[in-house]
Specification:
468 residues, alpha+beta, 8-stranded mixed beta sheet, 5-stranded mixed beta sheet, 8 helices, globular
Length: 468
């Protein structure tokens, strides 16, 4: 969890503490690409998400309880919540006034100012039909809380958590989560962490999940449907839960996903350091959310969500994100290559370790014949990997050029220094946030080399590097 002080608005004096200056937290954290995502003035410690979802009407009824610490003397503060109907807000047990400002801002004014360092609780009651988002930065696909033919799925990256619960929706404010979901009997709700409770009443089933490691809001999962659920433990003692949609239960890739998940989780832990979460597993859908990409998946924390049965490289990609993206998260969205470049490189490295081409050969292949770009995107070599612009944060260059940059770094500094760098990276920034600049600094420290020109060529300028 990161303490973030917001930009200051016009000061007001709290009636509860005359002479103390109380000011509004900022409506946005100023991320260069998503300036209105997240909010200033407080740091969230814990969310309790209580929702009831009816697939027939697509109505979600929710009560979200947030425990947070004021990082300034707060007169008011914002939460991110996209288009849902807010019924009431209470702060520390007292009714608070609120208003909607724009499509995703919920502005809350408590009955008294909140002093800096004060731990406070916010309870928001809301309902409505969640409205998905779309944008070129997510392959022109829908994202957020998405209905399926028998339930729902969640694809929250980058700012889609706000489509279904009020939050401080930016990766720099991680928190612990308890997720309680009620659905019609016969359906299951699969989320993050461990299933700690389950009960039935009035023709409905409720599932209670708890994630006890810090998690960014976009990584929260809540898949609802007819799932076959299996539980096991990896050879290293990590609890594993896999949920496969019954419509694809006989698919060979779906059948193989639990076994692969076990293997990848343990083997990557041997290479990169201990698996950072208490649970692993998978949620496998059957691509029933058109127009989602057939291979669309998200590294939802501790249990990746696949919109169709994944192949082996897909499992390696999403499980690798548990280190690169989930535990070590971006500080700003322009740093997305630190997530996707690493995950792409791990795909190549996994193949190298299991009888396929070397990571160097895979990198060379894509260097010589880069993947085609989508019609609305700039050319592959025109993207600046470390600052690609908002609409290109998931351009294929971020994945493939990011992976190439890591393999080129491995080639330049040697395996010993490279793997020491990676292990140090995930250990030093565990459960936190980091930037491209942080990675470059650590790479130079570990390798003992001046890598300024290398990173400038591979990450900070457009154009095809002339050599490895």
């Amino acid at each position: 969890m990161v303490l973030v002080a917001g930009m200051m608005a016009v000061g007001v004096v709290s009636p509860a503490a005359a002479g103390v200056q109380y000011e509004a937290g900022s409506a946005g954290l100023g991320d260069p690409y998503f300036p209105n995502s997240g909010n200033g003035g407080y740091d969230v410690q814990r969310y309790y998400l209580k929702t009831d979802y009816d697939p027939a009407t697509r109505v979600l009824t929710g009560t979200t309880t947030i425990t947070a610490t004021a990082t300034q003397n707060l007169s008011r503060f914002n939460l991110d919540l996209y288009k849902m109907n807010v019924r009431s807000v209470r702060v520390d047990g007292r009714d608070a006034s609120f208003e909607r400002t724009g499509e995703r801002e919920l502005e809350i004014t408590p009955s008294a100012g909140l002093p800096k360092t004060r731990v406070f609780t916010v309870v928001v009651r809301y309902d409505g039909v969640p409205q998905p988002l779309t944008g070129p930065f997510v392959f022109n696909d829908l994202y957020g809380f998405l209905p399926t033919k028998d339930g729902a799925t969640v694809m929250g990256e980058p700012d889609g958590a706000a489509t279904w619960f009020p939050s401080n929706d930016h990766p720099t404010d991680k928190a612990l989560f308890t997720i309680e979901t009620t659905v019609p009997s016969g359906l299951k709700a699969i989320s993050n962490g461990s299933l700690v409770g389950q009960w039935s009443a009035g023709g409905k089933d409720t599932f209670l999940w708890r994630e006890d490691r810090p998690m960014a809001t976009y990584l929260v999962s809540n898949s609802i449907g007819h799932f076959n659920v299996s539980t096991t433990t990896t050879s290293k003692g990590i609890s594993q839960l896999d949920a496969v949609d019954q419509d694809v239960a006989s698919d060979p890739d779906a059948l193989n996903t639990p076994r692969l998940t076990t293997r990848v989780t343990d083997e990557l832990g041997d290479r990169f350091g201990p698996y950072p979460f208490g649970t692993t597993g998978s949620i496998v859908h059957h691509n029933n959310v058109p127009p989602l990409n057939l291979e669309s998946a998200l590294e939802t924390q501790g249990r990746p969500t696949y919109q169709s049965p994944p192949v082996e490289r897909g499992v390696a990609h999403e499980i690798s994100h548990q280190w690169f993206g989930d535990s070590v998260s971006v500080r700003q969205w322009k740093d997305t290559w630190l997530n996707e470049g690493f995950a792409k490189w791990v795909e190549w490295y996994w193949a190298e370790q299991h009888g396929g081409p070397s990571a160097q050969d895979s990198s060379q292949q894509w260097y010589d014949n880069p993947p085609p770009t989508l019609p609305y995107q700039p050319a592959f070599w025109d993207v600046v990997v470390a600052d690609p612009t908002r609409d290109e944060i998931f351009h294929r260059a971020i994945y493939f050029r990011g992976g190439m940059a890591l393999q080129a770094l491995r080639h330049k500094i040697g395996d010993d220094s490279f793997f020491q760098l990676v292990r140090t990276w995930v250990a030093e920034h565990k459960y936190g946030n980091a930037s491209t600049e942080d990675f470059e600094t650590l790479a130079q420290q570990v390798s003992g080399q001046d890598l300024t020109r290398f990173f400038n060529v591979w990450l900070h300028t457009p154009g095809k590097p002339t050599s490895w």
